[in-house]
Amino acid sequence: MGSKHPVQVIAVTGGKGGIGKTNVSVNLSLALAELGRRVVLLDADLGLANVDVLLGLKPRATLADVLEGSCDLRDVMISGPGGIRVVPAASGVSHMVHLNAQEHAGLIQAFSEIGDDLDVLIVDTAAGISDSVLSFVRAAQEVLVVVCDEPTSITDAYALIKLLNRDFGMTRFRVLANMVNTPQEGRTVFAKLTKVTDRFLDVALQYVGAVPFDEMVRKAVQKQRAVYDLYPRSKASMAIRAIAQKVDGWPLPANPRGHLEFFVERLVQQVGSDA
């Protein structure tokens, strides 16, 4: 059992709240789906689920129900726009952050069952650097760090990268600048971040691109729709489309077992070792 083809697991993170990380996760998912990839978006903000709210979806069950064994992952997934599927987080269920061995085995089983049915798993993490965020990020294959041009965003992104590098030996990070006024501003944000990482850490940062500040994003959020779906020609949507084309070219995991089971196994091992 298990997936026969590799699944790309991308954690979208940033260290700070209010930087539009969930918007990036949602719209990148849609853009990748448009390129023909089968995308599952996992809302991993276990304390404050918001992907379903952002898309106006009404989950009947969540990841918590899967762990309890009352349903399987396919029952929990809801169809989102553009053919993406969303795994809603169990909002306010704090024990999701501290799972026991049996629940973890259930999670691995749940994900390996859908492995043949997807190409990309996008994990929208919570803000901050809690244990749950670190677990999801370090289990993923690609880490996409979202930053804005404000000092707190850059310091928080740096703190997250430093922690992942120092404690877990992670060395490769992708960076996306969000809500920028000009393409140049995106490069400037990236330069500010690399200035500190180059000086103090042994990591490689790769610039993925910038999403401009766009009034249409706020309009879409108010209508509980993805900007990519509602305003496909908006500045933000065009930028996301270009970024998705780059992401589509990222190398797939070489392991024939795919990265999905590896992702969940690592998620579990860590929790076992952290407990």
UniProtKB/TrEMBL annotation:
CDD domains: FlhG-like (cd02038). The keyword Repeat does not apply. GO terms for biological process: negative regulation of cell division. Keywords: ATP-binding, Nucleotide-binding. One of its GO terms (molecular function) is ATP hydrolysis activity. It holds the Pfam family ParA. It comes from the Bacteria. GO terms for cellular component: cytoplasmic side of plasma membrane; cytosol. This is Cobyrinic acid a,c-diamide synthase.
